[in-house]
Amino acid sequence: NFYETLDQTIKKNKNKSSMVLIAGDMNATVGKRNNQNCIGKYSKGISNLNGQYLIDLCESNDLILSNTCFSHKQSHLTTWQQTRTNHQNKIQHTRKVIDYIMVENQYKHIRTNARTYQGTLTISDHRPL
After folding, report:
1. pTM
2. DSSP letter string over the chain?
3. 55-100: per-residue pLDDT in tens?
4. Which of 77, 121, 113, 69 is nearest to 95 (CA)?
5. Which of 8, 34, 76, 104 would disulfide-bridge 72, Cβ 3.0–4.6 Å?
6. Which residue in 65, 70, 76 sits closest to 29, CA to CA?
7. Closest CA to 63 of 114, 115, 27, 11
8. Could you tell me the strand order of the sheet in which 99-104 lies?
């Protein structure tokens, strides 16, 4: 329902005098680029169901996932991180890209960079993008 409502909102508000810009925690992993125009060449991971919904949304509305378009080291790509101790008392880190900044493809020239920042004073497992 979320992606359907978002799609309807985008289509309803899309016109020549405004720009569509969406940013947020989409709980989606889009994975590596596979003939999708909305994914840049610096994406990673394996797509999940929400990732497919997000790809479909972006493809149908000509949006591009900005933070998949710039080359950065791993720590500047990760938007969510979880640290746990496993049953053998070893520390395990899980890092994912689940937060995105989406902009209409026709405005992609205004993007200069997209990356995350660590060490900020926030109480969250997400990194500011």
Report:
1. 0.84
2. -HHHHHHHHHHHH--TT---EEEEE------S-SS-TTS-TT--S---HHHHHHHHHHHHHTEEEGGGSS---GGGT--EEEEEE-TTS-EEEEEE--EEEEEEGGGGGG--------S-S--SSB---
3. 999 999 999 999 998 888 887 888 877 788 888 999 988 888 888 9
4. 77
5. 76
6. 65
7. 11
8. 21-25, 99-104, 63-65
Cα–Cα distance for residue pair 54/126, rounded to 1 Å? 19
Supply φ then ψ for residue 34, to 5 degrees: -145, 70
Dihedral of alpha carbons 110, 61, 56, 27, sign: positive
Tokens of 93: 């880190």
8 Å CB contact between 54 and 30? yes
Q: Read off the tokens for 122.
A: 């926030």
Q: Which two tokens stand for residue 90?
A: 């070893």
